[in-house]
Amino acid sequence: MSTATPRLLDPGFDLTLRPMRYPRFYEMYRDAIRNTWTVEEVDFSLDVNDLKHKLGPAERHLVERLVAFFATGDSIVANNLVLNLYQHINAPEARMYLSRQLYEEALHVQFYLTLLDTYLPDPVARAKAFAAVENIPSIRAKAEFCFKWIDSIQDLHRIETREQRRQFLLNLICFAACIEGLFFFAAFAYVYYLRSRGLLHGLASGTNWVFRDESGHMAFAFEVIRTARAEEPDLFDDALSAQVVRMLEEAVECEMQFAQDVLSGGVAGLSTKDMRQYLQYCADLRLVQLGLPRHFGASNPFAFMDLQDVQEVTNFFERRVSAYQVGVEGEVAFDAAF
Questions:
Q1: What is the annotated role of this protein in its UniProt record (predicted)?
Q2: DSSP one-letter code for 234
């Protein structure tokens, strides 16, 4: 038996927490625990009035498409976590974080379930939203993009070779950079646009918590990637980098199908041109987080993203401090995400 120090993606199921090989993952787990929140803390009472009296047909279409995507998005992420990530990231402290992430994905599903029940009281409309993957083409395209990368390593039961580690990393990069880091961040932009107009305060408040969770999920995934790269530097060659760029290009085009659908009614202050620029801006941020050069060279076109979310978090803290089960510590690094 080899006495060499095992690598993070070596096959097996290490159970030893001491000595801890990757303390950063354990700290991420502890940070996530400090960020505990519950759906019951989110007040949707004002949103119902906004939906009835303040939103026009174009804005209502945007919201309906948005909540339809939310209805299945986090479930897809959770499935990949269970089916692909947990069995291959071989460090118990990392699996502690993944266990916490799985809880957070379930919490997001509960949040969006409550959101749909509140926003869509009609049972037929609600059923259509939950079946969005089947009956809304722009959402089906995003789901198919996700499923393609889930399926890419479904038959990978043990990571034995360099090529298998690259396969696994591409799946992880897809879910961190493209799905959580692009699809969800585009959705957050729509939410914060509505909030900048004083609309759907409950949706924005809950989204702030989801945002914090998703930022943590991305940070964890990028730390796994950074660690694997440090342990085996030649994993990231020009071919892998080119694959990542192509993946992000495809994700941007996929999300643009959704943007064209969401904005088809004409929403003042939002355009598909600006959304493409924002998506390219986010994609460049993900490339930088992966230690790769920017590809699109895009800037953030949405001024409302600069301060609106920070102000809302501040107000949310002041309004609901007594309701928290666990105190939140540290600062929200919005600049790193947007």
A1: Provides the precursors necessary for DNA synthesis. Catalyzes the biosynthesis of deoxyribonucleotides from the corresponding ribonucleotides.
A2: G
